[in-house]
Amino acid sequence: MARVFSFRFQLQSIMSDALIVIGGGLAGSEAAWQAARRGITVLLYEMRPERQTEAHRTGLLGELVCSNSLRSKDPGSGPGLLKKELSMAGSLIMEAADASSVPAGSALAVDRNIFAEFISSRLSSHKNIEIVRGEMTDLPDTPAILATGPLTSTAMAESLSRFIGGEHLYFYDAIAPIVAADSIDNDKVYRASRYGKGGDDYVNCPMTKEEYEAFYHALLEADKVTPRGFEEERVFEGCMPVEVMAARGVDTIRFGPMKPVGLPDPRTGKEPFAVVQLRAENNELTAYNMVGFQTRLKWPEQKRVFSMIAGLERAEFLRYGSVHRNTFINSPLFLDKDLTLKMKKTLFIAGQISGVEGYIESTAMGLLAGINAARMMRGLNVPEVPPSTSHGALVRHITGSESKHFQPSNINFGLFPIPAAALKIRDKKKRRMLIAEKALEDWGRYLAMVNEESPVEAAHGMSLGRG
Known about the structure:
Elements: E1 4-6, E2 19-22, H1 26-37, E3 42-46, E4 69-72, H2 78-88, H3 92-99, E5 101-102, E6 107-110, H4 112-124, E7 129-133, E8 144-146, H5 154-164, E9 169-175, E10 178-180, E11 190-191, E12 203-207, H6 209-221, H7 242-246, E13 274-280, E14 287-290, H8 299-306, E15 317-319, E16 322-329, H9 331-334, E17 340-341, E18 344-349, H10 359-377, H11 390-400, H12 420-423, H13 428-451, H14 455-459
Parallel strand pairs: 1-7, 2-3, 2-8, 3-7, 8-18
Antiparallel strand pairs: 4-6, 5-6, 9-16, 10-14, 10-15, 11-12, 12-13, 13-14, 17-18
Helix pairs in contact: 1-10, 2-10, 2-13, 3-4
């Protein structure tokens, strides 16, 4: 039975070679679980309830503070595929979700109290886990996993910034929507870079004066997400939502993110009245970011309003835009593929602070950090996660993206490398099912390596005991 200590308890009696996990959210809970299952003694530090965040209400581990949905269960979707991989790996968070699920159609939604109580109970009863209540303000010199989440305390953020520099630690997250490349109407867009610099790297969606005015008024009238009390509007001047910018005047966004100057349409030889630029998200050119379109519009409104843009009438949104508080690092500059900090190889980074977005994505990074830390402490090699898997696609995004334009991301098929066989398939659903089949096959092989078992056992989720 795990013991729960006050932070003031004298910890000298606890083994000095324990793995320290900082943060008891989804990523920290999963990381602690995975390491403990592999025989590692874990000290799980959670500052709640002694010190609450602005959003949490309880001291339960794994408390959900926003939606109670873990998104789609469909294995043919990015979130559904990631859930399947997590379940195959013996994820505590997925076990809790299955035990607390509520009716939600094709989505996996949970009773948030039962969900957090389940996680807290399993962790507190594990023989290899000690739960320490209280704030840790400095990064330890011993093996540790930092999983403090989007509401990382000021003291811990300052400790981390001493390693990476404060300019690379972000406290507010301005995310623009991402659309699938194969859903863009290429008959209505054109490729060009402003003033011809850098080749035809951008996809440009032109607008006439009438189209722009209709879009502008729809943008102003669209329903918006209300920021939480601690997310004050004034802090977003440097990453302003496009609808806030539009409210400052009819031409503000036309000479901001929709500036047409230097982008003549080769079909007419003239500059459009306004233009929305799309920037490639990956080398495979399967996904494009709507440049400058960070937004607080509600998701259905984003779909409705942004589909008014030429070429995006039938766009598939791989990720919707948002602006919210979210502490994260510029991971491509500082993280290795094993999720360790390049300048502090005993420190693993997990969860949203690593540059992923969402509940299950945070859980996935916690799972990998727990596995990798346990293997490192046991003197074993840490194999690279195949980029063809959901977990590997996320690692690829946070470690291999261009650092200049890095933004956190949910799991989506735009992050996956496309298998050669899939390139020949025109049907989107069939192509994605082929990607999913390869992901699960490669994930099974990966689990066999890290769990030292047969691929058949891994594929059936029989890896290790459950504590």
